[in-house]
């Protein structure tokens, strides 16, 4: 499947739009919009924020409705938050405990959003209605954008 995202351009656009911004919700809204419209594979693009211990709540997103609350113990988003590891899932039906927020989702990429002092802010969730839509390059480049934007380190 050809990749259509120009990650260098996407990173530059996000950098220019978010320069100097520190409000996490404003950053999430801008990134959700820019990432979602960067590639036709991205059917739903959004953030789930850590709002309580072991709890994610819906944040800014693009696409149809998302789940409102996801515990760390459930689904792909929960796994990314719990382990702080990117989850690249080529077939959501094969993922134990997958939460079907949208029946059209076939594959998913979820990346933990980590800020200064190693604080887990939330996760970036990208769903596709195509199976096996995401690559390791997608994951790596989006991780880099998130780290830069949210000040990990």
UniProtKB/TrEMBL annotation:
Gene3D superfamilies: 3.30.450.40. Pfam families: GAF_2 (PF13185). SUPFAM superfamilies: GAF domain-like. Belongs to the free Met sulfoxide reductase family. InterPro entries: GAF (IPR003018), GAF-like_dom_sf (IPR029016), Phosphatase_reg/MetRdx (IPR051330). GO terms for molecular function: L-methionine-(R)-S-oxide reductase activity. It comes from the Bacteria. It comes from Paracoccus yeei. One of its GO terms (cellular component) is cytosol. Residues 58-147 form the GAF domain. PANTHER family: FREE METHIONINE-R-SULFOXIDE REDUCTASE, GAF/PUTATIVE CYTOSKELETAL PROTEIN. This is GAF domain-containing protein. Transmembrane segments: none annotated.
